[in-house]
Design brief:
With 364 residues, the chain is an alpha/beta fold. The protein has two domains: 115 residues, Enolase-like, domain 1 (2-Layer Sandwich), CATH 3.30.390.10; 227 residues, Enolase-like C-terminal domain (TIM Barrel). Strands 4-5-6-7-8-9-10-11 form an eight-stranded parallel β-barrel, surrounded by five helices. It has a three-stranded antiparallel beta sheet with strand order 1-2-3, sandwiched between helices. β10, α12 and β11 form a beta-alpha-beta unit. α5 packs parallel to α6, α6 packs parallel to α7 and α7 packs parallel to α8.
């Protein structure tokens, strides 16, 4: 038995003057919300919960309110702790809010348990592989940024060793976004995987128009084409457009993904451990999508905690398609082991380090 001794929170903020933008957000700063859990023997685990568009202070208050359910509990009774926290809040907390808090708590528990047992998280989960396929994510909008500028950006990621890249759409008229897709494809050549993320900003009609317009450019998937609340609309885009559809990283919990599967709304399930309820819930979601013969791709646009949590989960599930490697949002990346910063033909090989394998010395 190893009891949880303390549960603390921390917010790290990075200023981004003249920052880039996607169809939803112009960044002047980026915040990350962390849960720092310590066990009675002094082992520390760190987890992250999604807080873009939400005040981190609200998450701090919620985790503080939930901490009595954690302190004194045996950390190896991980599933029971997760469920007790969820059941405590099911009637009163907004779902996205509680799932963000649960994500941070859950990831921190996995990180600490890995350190206690001397194993990396992906091996604790069962270890399908020791490597994951990653793609370079960027292609945001910027002041005076032309399609040719976008193409050069994508080519620079290929030059770094990536064999897959992703750009944004939905922040410009459809015809302009198609020109951006064309410029990206011309710059990277025919053999590099190209994905497009519309961040839920399009109508069904415009999403279908974009899907058809991109057909000559061999787009691997169109991510988040319409509102995450419009599962039927997303299914319609999938049926009527030629480009495969991915979604929804803003969905939380296995129940949301069950609905997406039942509507046959996606070709690729896109999820994030810091949004959906943590590593535990992501693992269950991957199992559900596997039953529908749907692969998983893991979203990551935050810190090293988010990235490594998704990488470890991806390495542990049989149906992992890819993990997002964000080229703009890289908070705490200096805490990552060198092995996770080095590509092998588009793949990352996970080091055999306990927990998430991060060095938190400068942060906790």
């Amino acid at each position: 038995m190893e009891k949880i001794k303390t549960v603390k929170t921390k917010v790290i903020r990075k200023e981004m003057p003249d920052g880039p933008w996607n169809p939803r957000i112009v960044w002047s700063s980026k915040s990350i919300f962390l849960v720092i859990l310590e066990t009675e023997s002094g082992v520390i685990g760190v987890g992250e919960g999604w807080c873009d568009g939400l005040s981190p202070k609200l998450l701090e208050m919620l985790v503080d309110d939930l901490s009595p359910l954690l302190v004194g509990q045996d950390i190896h009774m991980h599933t029971g702790i997760w469920d007790s926290v969820f059941q405590k809040s099911i009637y009163s907390a907004k779902p996205g809010f509680i799932y963000a808090a649960l994500s941070a708590i859950d990831i921190a528990m996995w990180d600490a348990r890995g350190k206690l047992l001397g194993l990396p998280v992906f091996k604790l989960l069962g270890g399908w592989s020791d490597k994951v396929y990653v793609y370079a994510s960027g292609g945001l909008y910027g002041a005076n940024k032309t399609p040719d500028d976008l193409g050069r950006e994508m080519k620079s990621y290929v030059d770094k060793g990536f064999t897959a890249v992703k750009i944004k759409a939905g922040g410009a008229p459809v015809k302009e976004d198609i020109r951006r897709v064309a410029a990206a494809r011309e710059a990277i050549g025919p053999d590099i995987r190209l994905m497009v993320d519309a961040l839920y900003m399009l109508s069904v009609a415009d999403a279908i128009k974009l899907s058809k317009g991109m057909e000559p450019y061999d787009v691997y998937f169109l991510e988040a084409p319409v509102s995450p609340l419009d599962i039927q609309g997303m299914a319609e885009v999938r049926r009527r457009g030629p480009t495969p559809v991915a979604g929804n990283e803003f969905a939380y919990g296995r129940h949301c993904f069950r609905e997406i599967m039942e509507h046959r709304a996606v070709d690729v399930a896109h999820l994030d451990t810091i949004v959906c309820g943590g590593i535990s819930e992501a693992y269950k979601i991957a199992a559900i999508t596997s039953a529908w013969n749907i692969p998983c791709s893991f979203h990551s646009s935050s810190s090293a905690v988010c990235f490594t949590a998704n990488v470890h989960t991806g390495a542990a599930v049989q149906n992992c398609d890819s993990v997002e490697y964000h080229m703009i949002h890289q908070l705490m990346f200096d805490a990552m082991p060198a092995q996770l910063l080095s590509l092998e033909d588009g793949w990352l090989r996970l080091p055999d380090l306990p927990g998430l394998g991060l060095n938190y010395a400068n942060y906790v």
